[in-house]
Amino acid sequence: MFPVSCPISARQAGVVSETISSVRVIVVLGVGGVGKSTASDRMAAALRARGSAAEVIRFDELRKKLAPPGVDPFSKERWVKEWIYSRATEHFRALAEAGEIPIVDCGLTAEKIRVELKASIPGLRIVHLYCPLALAVWRDTKRSILGTHERGRFLHLRALFDRLTPWKPSSEWFPQPGITYAFEYPHCADVHINTRGKTPQWVAGEALRQLGFGEVRGG
């Protein structure tokens, strides 16, 4: 929960209210291990505490339902991504029109698709989380030891192993953005936050503050 850190004037409240009503979908993106899932959870909790119907969508799970039959939903092929995100756009728009605020936890590596999403859904805002790659690898490894992920375990290590294996062709590398294929810099993002040394609660609070939800206090 993110309590307001200080009172705001009626005029400020009107500005905040107008900004909040204009935010209909929040996409939290970045490579694996930057803290997207935990930050998304805390953003949703904060919005629900304020009375909004916020819902976290794990895109790795959703993409399995949206992928063409018989096609790897995690394929790095551009046409597969465009197919999945075109259907996802309809899903996000429907949720927003129903009065919910979907918070989409995803990788979304292609800038072209990000730009198209923003153009297709008025009120869609993008939060880009990042950190040093070594830290992301450590976080992913720690997460894999303690549990699992929608795509499996030790994602970064598997990708690094494939890339460092000289006899393995790139076509057989484990697909992991930022390691075995490019994560295009999100120039169209509305918020950019380095999660190094930050708690998930602070990251979530800062993202909401920059999106116009008012000052919040991190944990």
Low-confidence stretches: 1-20
- CATH class of the domain at 10-132 and 185-210, anyone? Alpha Beta
Helix/sheet category? alpha/beta
| N-to-C SSE string, H for helix and E for strand | HEHEHHEHEHHEH
Distance between the termini: 9 Å
Largest sheet: 5 strands, parallel
Tell me the number of strands: 5
Number of helices: 8
Instruction: Provide the CATH topology of the domain at 10-132 and 185-210.
Output: Rossmann fold
Q: What is the 3D form? A: globular
Strand content: 5-15%
Please describe the structure with a list of short key phrases separated by commas or semicolons.
alpha/beta, 8 helices, disordered N terminus, 5-stranded parallel beta sheet, 219 residues
Summarize the structure.
By secondary structure, this protein is of the alpha/beta class. Helices cover 46% and strands 13% of the residues.
Structural commentary:
The protein is an alpha/beta fold and 219 residues long. The chain has a domain of 149 residues: Rossmann fold. 46% of the residues lie in helices and 13% in strands. The protein is built from eight helices and five strands; from the N terminus they run αβαβααβαβααβα. Strands 2-3-1-4-5 form a five-stranded parallel β-sheet, with helices on both faces. α2 crosses α8. The radius of gyration is 18 Å and the shape is globular.
List the helices and strands and how they pair.
Elements: H1 10-22, E1 25-29, H2 36-49, E2 53-58, H3 59-66, H4 78-97, E3 100-106, H5 111-120, E4 124-130, H6 133-146, H7 155-164, E5 191-194, H8 200-210
Parallel strand pairs: 1-3, 1-4, 2-3, 4-5
